[in-house]
Amino acid sequence: MLTQIYIRNFAIIDQLELDLSQGMSVMTGETGAGKSILVDALGLVLGDRADSDVVRHGAERAEISAYFDITQLKPVQAWLQENDLDVADECALRRIISAEGRSRGYINGSPAPLQLMKALGEMLVDIHGQHQHQSLLKADIQRHLLDDYAGNKSLVDQIHQLYQGWKNASQQLETLRQNARQKDARLELLRYHTRELEALDLGLDELKQLDEEQRRLANGGNLMQKCSSALEALYENDAGSALHLVNQQLAELESLRQLDPQLSGICDMLNEATIQIQEGCNDLRHYVDRLELDPERLDWVEQRLGSIHDMARKHHVKPETLPELLTQFSDELAQLENVDIELETLENQIEKLQQQYTDLAGKLSQKRSKAATKLAKQVTAIIRELGMPAGKFSLSLTPREENAPHRHGRETISFEVAANPGQPAKPLTKVASGGELSRISLAIEVLLCNSQQIPTLIFDEVDTGIGGAVAESVGQQLRALGKSHQVLCVTHLPQVAALGHQHFQVSKLVEKKKTRTRIIELDTQARQDEIARMLGGMEITTQTRAHAEEMISRAALA
Predict the structure, then answer these.
(1) Which end of the chain is more exposed for a tag (fewer CB within 10 A), N or C?
(2) 97-136 as b/e, with b when 16 or more CB fall inside 10 Å?
(3) Whole-angstrom Cα distance, residue 502 to residue 523?
């Protein structure tokens, strides 16, 4: 749930820090005080787009931070881990918007693109109202809500797996069919290429060995001359070889060892040096003896290398990958030679998958149809209590035009509403106003509270255009939802405000010709005063205060 929000230099907020608790929190204030600013700020930290207009006048940047307790949110923890972000009991989202319009986002202190913040935000908060988080308008969300209500998760997962298996098999079948249409020409070409590569018979390490041998043979004369000269200078020149000179000086030093023991270590090292020179020269002599000047072998090696490189150029590959290419051609050749058998096997597999899909998709359609009728009836009953007395909610299940399997089943799902008598039901996106959409959403949220995974629900002005008993009914529905979720409600109705577990007041202050918004949590007395103001205006009377106290007391029993 949302535990804290910090806002700095956003719109007319200079600095604000709020601590939020579980249950239903309400936010009230005078018209124009900026009650929805908090919701707008939260929308930005959850991934909404922003421009420089949101930065407070005169400030360099706006900053919004939101902190969430994710102790019980295993899907969120898994998501953070999958995206290599820190996982702890608390998740912190931060958004900075500069006065120039640049924006930066952070998740648990790590820079995060807007798309990533939005994906995480949709798992943490659902905002209902005239905002971009109106998820109820999305076709995918409508389908998920119906399936959640019907308990279709296991069935939906099985259908998706069958669809994926059918899709993969169908793509493989199409590839085989294309190959089969070009079978004869392709077979002839593959056999030719395979014979060529088999005749080349390039070993796995042969290219490396040939390159080394070619360099050695091509430079044989130079190697023999330089190595023989080195051997002469190091060992074979009796009068002036390196070994002779070292031995000569070593003998002189050995005679001095008895005069100064410190020369012992030096003599030992020089003695080892003579041994190393002798061993090195022996190895060098053997190397020179084995060197061959073989023009015929050099010619053969260069021809072999030329054949290998020519073959690589022909197939547009690196020379060292020619053995892999031979394996690839051989595999394709074997597949083509058995294409008729594989085609029949795949066709049988696809037919079996389609039959399994048809059976399960039929069961899903039946469950969806039954649940849609029940859900429509229940939502209709609630929205009629919420100020839509003639409203009728329905779900349209439309069979897909294509007969092929689909990852989401055989039908599309659309939420529809008829707001007035005599009107046909139409999709929510076309007929529902902001207030109507919020009330429909509230009705569905209440019905699906047990299956809803999003922990924090925000309702911005869901009570617009209603009052009296309907307003109290809205408040009761929100309070009931607050038993299983964290609910934040921006409201102008005392009937709704009185039912909150936590109450914030929004006010606009003017100081030194500057306007700022202040939001404070109200204690019991201040809360009575605020609800009394909402009941009777700026002048709080004994009657309005008593009425407010009664409403709060009655709410505590709900």
Answers:
(1) C
(2) bebeeebebbbbeeebebebbbebbbbbbbbbbbbebbbb
(3) 9
Question: Quick check: 34 pLDDT over 50?
Answer: yes
Phi/psi of residue 428, each to 5°? Answer: -55, -40
Assigned CATH for 2-137+451-521: 3.40.50.300
Answer for the pair 124, 68: CB distance below 8 angstroms, yes or no: yes
Pure H helices in 418-489? 428-431, 434-447, 468-481
List the chain domain ranges.
2-137+451-521, 186-337
In the predicted structure, residue 132 carries a pLDDT above the cut 60? no
- The label of the residue with tokens 């405000």 reads 497
- In the prediction, which pLDDT does 440 show? 81
What does the chain come to in residues? 558
| For the chain, the helix, strand and coil percentages under 3-state DSSP, each to the nearest 5 | 55, 20, 25
What is the DSSP track for 15-64? EEEEE--SEEEEEEE-TTS-TTHHHHHHHHHTT----GGGBPTT-SEEEE
Which two structure tokens, joined as six digits, stand for 318? 């690196």
Tell the residue number behind the tokens 């799902």, with chain if given.
413
Q: How far apart are CA 521 and CA 538, in angstroms?
A: 19
Q: What is the mean pLDDT of residues 151-179?
A: 91
Could you tell me the end-to-end alpha-carbon distance of the chain, in angstroms, rounded to an integer? 23
Contact 147, 139 (CB under 8 A): no
* Measured distance CA(257)–CA(226) in Å, rounded: 38
Q: In DSSP terms, which residues pair with 459 in a beta bridge?
A: 128, 489
Contact 24, 478 (CB under 8 A): yes
